[in-house]
Amino acid sequence: MLTITVDLNTCDNHGQCVFAAPDVFAFNDDEELTFVARPAAEYRDAVLAGAGACPVKAITVVQSGA
Ligand code: SF4
Prior knowledge:
Blueprint: E1 2-6, H1 16-20, E2 25-27, E3 33-35, H2 44-53, E4 59-63
Antiparallel strand pairs: 1-4, 2-3
Bound molecules: iron/sulfur cluster (SF4).
């Protein structure tokens, strides 16, 4: 299982995570970051790429289970 947390106080809306994993991260109409906190396993690589690309390291990904 993947669990994502984002420090929205640190997030600077750079959008790298949205670019890397658009099915998981998105901006809402107020240009605030929204995300799927527990995405399906198929998004693991994209989520990790997005977290790695975040210039302010606001994304934490915890992987647990099988
Ligand atoms: S890449 Fe980082 S700073 Fe940019 S929107 Fe995503 S969490 Fe926020």
